[in-house]
Design a protein that fits this description.
By secondary structure, the protein is α/β, with parallel strands linked by helices. It folds into 2 domains: 238 residues, Aspartate Aminotransferase, domain 2 (3-Layer(aba) Sandwich); 101 residues, Aspartate Aminotransferase, domain 1 (Alpha-Beta Complex), CATH 3.90.1150.10. The protein has a 7-stranded mixed beta sheet, sandwiched between helices. Helix 4 links the parallel strand 3 and strand 4. The longest helix has 22 residues. The radius of gyration is 21 Å and the shape is globular. The chain starts with a strand and ends with a helix. Bound molecules: pyridoxal-5'-phosphate. The site of pyridoxal-5'-phosphate has 11 residues, from helix 3.
């Protein structure tokens, strides 16, 4: 039995793997594979329409918000956002809380000015800054809702009158939020919504059309809206896997229902870490991520032994990111509570042996 704690690409629901494999052989009893149908056929249009409708329903979006499925991963959004929202002479405010906070700042500087409203670099990105100021004349405020590598998560939405832009790649649809508060949300699919190769963008159409620069068509959100995410051949299979995963999420009871289970998983793991002195969580308690749990060991020499035990017991993807070390356990929507229970038992056994 394998327990998959990978940080991304990561575990998806079993039924999604089964349905996706079936669709490769015979899509909806057409005798055709999902991999060989035209993207402008009614067959694929129905998939795309359902995926968009499910996002709107699960996020309870109002009619100003459009849903797009684009290429290039979240990393393309790091520059597509300022390209569309920031004029050369304007300033956008950014929050820097880790690797995924720093990269979009670097890209935005290619298109305008950046004001880093706050950074947690001083303590190795182990906390989320509070009481920072967002200047009222900022073109927008950008932040990362969940810092996948460092294991911190924003448990509040910053108060501001400027348009909010968020990279939600690693916690989108994992908890209830007022998604309509955001002018733009983006998320690479490979953590909570599907297979790698597609990027979900939710954009309030009222913020578009302000920049004066010329945009290549593929970079222009308005062109994608006009063309229904089909300016060119979209990543058909990746969108299909998203649609199946979104269907699964709806069947589970939607975002509020999955949030309850996500809370249970995170509480079980953090309670265990807090109660066993062998393990040492690395980030401030108030800012702990419910998606990516990062910890090291009191005695670093034991880390290898624990890693080997995990490997032997079928625990996949628990090694920490190379920039942080230690361990990172990802608890995305599709990870069953049972996998966390099994891991916690293993930790308790290990601690008894090495106390
Ligand atoms: C994984 C991740 C990214 C990078 O996504 P790509 O699709 O590889 O470009 C960006 N931001 C966050 C928060 C992530 O977790």
């Amino acid at each position: 039995m394998i327990h998959n704690f990978n940080a991304g690409p990561s575990i998806l629901p079993r039924q999604v793997f089964e349905q996706a494999s079936q669709a490769i052989l015979d899509f909806n009893q057409t005798g055709l594979s999902i991999l060989e149908i035209g993207h402008r056929t009614p067959l694929f249009q129905a998939v795309l329409d359902e995926a968009i409708a499910l996002v709107k329903e699960l996020m309870q979006l109002d009619s100003d918000h459009e849903v797009l499925f684009l290429h290039g991963g979240a990393t393309t959004q790091f520059f597509q956002v300022p390209m569309n929202l920031l004029n050369d002479n304007e300033t956008a405010a950014y929050l820097d809380c880790g690797v995924w906070g720093t990269k979009p700042i670097k890209e935005a500087k290619l298109f305008g000015h950046v004001n880093v409203a706050a950074s947690s670099k001083d303590r190795g990105y182990t906390y989320i800054p509070r009481d920072f100021e967002i200047p009222a004349d900022s073109a927008y405020f950008h932040y990362t809702t969940n810092n996948t590598i460092e294991g911190t998560q924003m448990h509040f939405v910053p108060e501001t009158t400027v348009p909010l832009v968020a990279d939600m790649s690693s916690d989108v649809l994992s908890r209830v939020m007022d998604f309509n508060r955001f002018s733009l949300i983006y998320a690479g699919a490979q953590k909570n919504i599907g297979a790698a190769g597609v990027n979900m963008v939710v954009v309030n159409k009222n913020i578009l059309g302000r920049v004066t620069r010329q945009l290549p068509s593929m970079m222009d959100y308005r062109k994608h809206i006009e063309n229904g995410s089909m300016l060119n051949t979209p990543p058909v299979f990746a969108i299909y896997v998203c649609m199946l995963t979104l269907r699964w999420l709806k069947e589970q009871g939607g975002v509020a229902a999955i949030e309850k289970i996500n809370n249970q998983k995170a509480a079980l793991l953090y309670d265990t870490l807090d109660s066993i002195p062998v393990f040492k969580p690395t980030v401030d308690k108030a800012d702990r991520s419910k998606m990516n749990v990062v910890f090291v060991m009191e005695n670093p020499e034991l880390e290898k032994a624990f890693l080997e035990l995990c490997k032997k017991e079928g625990m996949v993807g628990v090694k920490g990111h190379r920039s942080v070390g230690g361990f990172r356990v990802s608890l995305y929507n599709a990870l069953p509570l049972g996998s966390v229970k099994t891991l916690v038992e293993l930790m308790q056994h290990f601690a008894l042996k090495h106390a």
